[in-house]
Specification:
Blueprint lengths: L8 H14 L3 E6 L2 H9 L5 E3 L1 H9 L9 H14 L4 E4 L7 H13 L4 E5 L18 H14 L1 E2 L2 E2 L2 E6 L2 H4 L1 H13 L4 E4 L5 H10 L4 E4 L11 H7 L3 E4 L2 H18 L10 H8 L1 H10 L2
Parallel strand pairs: 1-2, 1-10, 2-3, 3-4, 4-7, 7-8, 8-9, 9-10
Antiparallel strand pairs: 5-6
Helix pairs in contact: 2-4, 4-5, 5-6
Amino acid sequence: MTLFNSLNSKKRSKQLKDLLDSEKLVTLPGCYDALSAKMIEKSGIKAGFMSGFCVSSTQLGMPDTGLISYTEMQNQVRNICNITTIPILFDGDTGWGNAGNIYRTVRGYADAGAAAIMIEDQKWPKKCGHTKGKDVVELDEAKSRIKAAADASIINGEKDILVMARTDAIATRGLSDAIKRMQAYKELGADLLFVEAIKSKEDMKTVIKEVPGYHMINLIEDGETPLLAIDELEEIGFKIAVLPLSLMSATVKTMKESLLNIKNRKYNTNVSSFEELRDVVGFNEYYELEDKYK
């Protein structure tokens, strides 16, 4: 890891594909900015996920309800890829519009260094998959989104970025509709598959059986999907287990505890040392760069 890295999406998408091919299940923690992504790589974890929920929360201080823009999200993709070398799957929401917008979104994420982009079939304004009030567009419109994304992922005849197709159909239209959509999205060229908010182990097995492919499961503490053991999810057949909110939830909890101490005129003792903090942020790499050009 260095202060500045190549924003090469083709290389990173191959890294992710090779990782998925070599391991039965890959666990992806969710980042939301350059520092959290950097921490994931420093931990030795081989890949990550950028959550739209987390970016909206940390950049705007607002809920994941379609308020954050394409430009704000793409800027965060670029910041994260600039400071990391591991492949990261990025949330692309609904693509911010029609097929033309989706094409631009996929190319913009690829240009920023994303290994993969997730495009979903929710109606606008979209919502977090584990909250109320969401619905999906009709299948023809959803297919148009995924087809545009799949086409945009190929440049000069070669795959440049992986596309994950997501459906939220379970919430309003049931499991069978969600499976029908996943089958259609896979046929249209989706590389990775994601049925959001699966509610039982039996439904998980049904999804994997009916739609073979690289499936992701979304694991949110206190969310809609049961938190089965990672080994059990691997046995069912999932390829990716993403924990999108774990890091941000831990950060919020720690900040609340620290602020309470400050409010009560106490110092925080359970924190990183200043030396460790400087190292994580990158002062040591910067000093090496600075010395090189003295």
